[in-house]
Each structure stands twice: as C-alpha cells, then as structure tokens.
Amino acid sequence: MPRISTFDEAIADSAQFTKRHLLLGNGFSIGCRAEIFHYASLYAQADFSAIPEVQQAFEVLGTQDFEVVIRTLEAASKLLPFYAPESKVGAKRMIDHAEALKEILVSTIAANHPERPNDIFDDEFWACRRFLSHFLAGNQPGHVFSLNYDLLLYWTLMHDDVPEEGAPVNLSKNDSFGNDEDDPDTDYVVWQGETAAHSANIHFLHGAVHLFDAGSELQKYTWVRKGEPLVDQSREAIEAGKFPLFVAEGTSAQKKSKIRHHAYLYQCFKVLTANAGTGTHCFFVFGHSLAENDDHILKRLGRGKFRKMYVSLYGDPESEENKQIIARAQALAALRYERHPLEVVFFDAASANVWGEPE
C-alpha cells in the first residue's frame, strides 16, 4: 500500500513544477451535495415511466450508474442481431433507450440541482475558491478540467465577493466565452473559437447543463445577461426541446468520437493533451475513480510527459474502490516511455477541505 499524503503535503511537493493542473471528477460535486449529485441520488429522482425496461436494466445489472446501463444497452444492440437475427426491432429499441437515458440523466440533474447559488453557503464557496487557488491563482495559473455537468464549478468561480474574514481569493477564470459580435446584447454569451480558447483555463471536457449547442454557435447561459437563475434557464430550454452540450456516451471510444466531432469539446481535449505533454507541469486528479469509461482522457495523462500526478483517495485506502483507483493510477504510469517516467502520489481527499472543514 503506497503512502497517503495530505493535500497540503501534495501541494508543497508540487511547488517544484511551473504549473499545477486539476482534473475534477464527480467526487468534487458529491463532496458539496451528496444527496443530489451521487448517481444513487440521481437514480432515485429519475423518471423512467416512459421507458420502464430501462429501470429493469438497472436492477438486472445491479447498478445505479447511468453510464454503465448506457454502455450495456449500446453494446447489447450490436450483439443482438447475431444472437437473434429476427429481432431487429429489439436492437433499435436498445439504441433508442440508451439515447433516452442520456436525456433522462441531464434532465434529472437539471431538475434536482440546487436552485440558486445562495443554496450553497458562503463559507463553502470561499473554501472551494481557496482550493481552486492552488491551480488558478498567481503569476502562472494552471488549468481546471471538469468532467462534471453541474453548475458548482461555475458558481464558485463567479462567487468573488469578499469574505467577512481574510483576504479575497482572486482566480483566473477565462473560459473562452464572450459577446456575440453580431448581437452583443443577447441573453447569453458564445464560445469565441479556437483563437480565444488558447488563453482559456477553465474547460468543461464533457459539456455542462448551461452550455447549449445552437448549431451555428455554442451558447453559454448566464445570470448576468438575463437576470434569471441558470438552473431555470436550463430547465426552460430542455422543456422547449433544446438539449445541452453533454457527453454521456457509453464507452470511452464513443465519448472520444463525440468530442472529436465538436469544436469546443475537441479544443478542451487538445488543451489537456498539450499540458500533459509539458514536462515542467504536474496534474492533480480529484474526485475521480479513474474508471475505464474515461480512458480517452486518462490515457492522455498516462502517455504525457509531465512527471508527477497527485490522485485523491476518499475514505479507507484499503477499501476495494481505493485499491482499484491505486491499481488504475499505476497502470496509467506504466504507459509512459522510459525517458518520461510518471510518479504517482496519493493524497487524502478529505484533507483538501474542498467545501470547508467538516462539522
């Protein structure tokens, strides 16, 4: 069993590198509101009435993980024609249900999301900003790459008022969205394209509930422009038949294919790849299980040139889940060429106090 550092120890050790980058998984959001963002919570709130077979699929597979069921349905649809060639309708139905399940997932996140930023305590936001400052403050801020669909990261970056005690935490928060040059007074801002993206340091690798693909442009809904909470805007858009930019494909290969076919997502992916290929940088991975359905992202870290990766573990390091994370992290390090070895350091996720000290 490797030694488990504290977060502060990991940060102190990483001072040897010119930049720190952060990859956020769902544990970041679960740490704030587990009752909302854990897959079990989403499953309990989801409405499967239109596709009851899918709820049975969850039960048969013994999971509440949406991506596991999506991946299984898509895989089974390819096998069914060989085992039951007369059942062409069944294969199509599985594909249709996989697509419907993706929509249920994002609709459930939007429906059960905290209503307003005020639902998160100031102390929680300030603690999170202090956590993010290790990656987004200073003369050479790094990048934050999020795999989450919710608004918690965005809300935290926007929560820049001054705490009652202590100095404000200033963060670099360029996400490459700005005014539409043809209509600067719209209720939303638009992605400025690859040129502007070179200076961005906030990246939603799998999309988010406030990013909507309008065909000719990618729109980001904002509270400032419309004066209406983002959750409400997202719900209204979904109810009107619009769908956020959202990567919930079943396998890593399918996710990668979708990313490659969307300019914004692919630009985020290229930025991660470029920084993983910089030997003087380091990466922190927080709240991610390193599961293979995100190998399209993780293998870029494994095959990069940066020298050290700091991976969070939550709870007992001897738990089966943490043992799997340790094994997966070591497998990523094994992908390296000898001249660019990767050292993995594990740290206690709770010691980061991302959303504040536990009560």
3D architecture notes:
- Helix content is 45%, strand content 14%.
- The chain has 359 residues and is an alpha/beta fold.
- It folds into two domains: 4-33 and 118-352, no CATH class; 39-112.
- The strands form two sheets. It has a seven-stranded parallel beta sheet, sandwiched between helices. Strands 4-5-8-7-9 form a five-stranded antiparallel beta sheet.
- The chain starts with a strand and ends in an 11-residue tail after the last strand.
Keywords:
359 residues; alpha/beta; 14% strand
Q: Specify the biggest β-sheet.
A: 7 strands, parallel
Class based on secondary structure composition and strand pairing: alpha/beta
Give start-end ranges of low-pLDDT stretches: none
Overall geometry comes to globular
Strand order of the largest sheet: 1-12-11-10-2-3-6
Distance between the termini: 29 Å
Q: What is the count of helical runs?
A: 16
Radius of gyration: 21 Å
Give the % helix.
40-55%
Strand content: 5-15%
Overall average pLDDT: 88
SSE order in H/E notation? EHEHHHHHHHEHEEHEEEHHEHHEHEHE
How many strands appear in the DSSP assignment?
Answer: 12
Structural domain tally = 2
Oligomeric grouping of the chains:
single chain
